[in-house]
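Re: the request from the purification team.
They wanted to know what the chain is likely to look like in 3D before they choose a buffer screen. I agreed to run a prediction and write the result into the notebook, where they can find it.
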Amino acid sequence: MITVIEGKVAPLPIENIDTDQIIPAQFLKITKREGLGKYLFYRWRYDEQGRPKYGFILDDPKYSGASILVTGRNFGIGSSREHAVWALIDYGIKAIIAPSFGDIFYENAARNGLVCVKVREEIAKEIIEEALKREVYARIDLENKTLSYLGKNIGFEIEESVRKRLMLGLDDVGLTLELYEGAIKRYEEKMKSYIKIRKGIFTPL
């Protein structure tokens, strides 16, 4: 259940980051979510021999402990791999702020409790530019749909179904029941039974 996220911002001034860049295909054979964080942005952080590269922004000590990633438009485009979301969460990222997201990534994020906040491009650029110069902290309030940073407070839009899923910690079944339980019950009450049980055996009527 998520209502408010507060944390240090890590800037990633790159557009069109696809899921293969977030986590390469070679790690999709891993079925556990735990431990995937070390493979996040693997090709940007390590060479072909697995040795750390230097200069990637998330490896900069001044962004250590950052839980909010601010990046360019079209974050998470590409394949439907859910591992991309798992790797971000395992690394410690709780929210991503960007002008736009890949549709499947956005849905995967909502299902796994990773908050994706859509803002205007100029706002994302402002936060990135400031975070490159100094420590920036942000606060995301899902209940009031507001983003606070550097003394500013702006509203953002989020689909109501996604907001409810995140705030109530619902899976797909739980979300369906939350939104349509009454309609489902009314349908079931009207529906004719086509199965009867006779001596423990299911028999079509």
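For the purification team: The mean pLDDT is 89.
Please add any questions underneath this entry.
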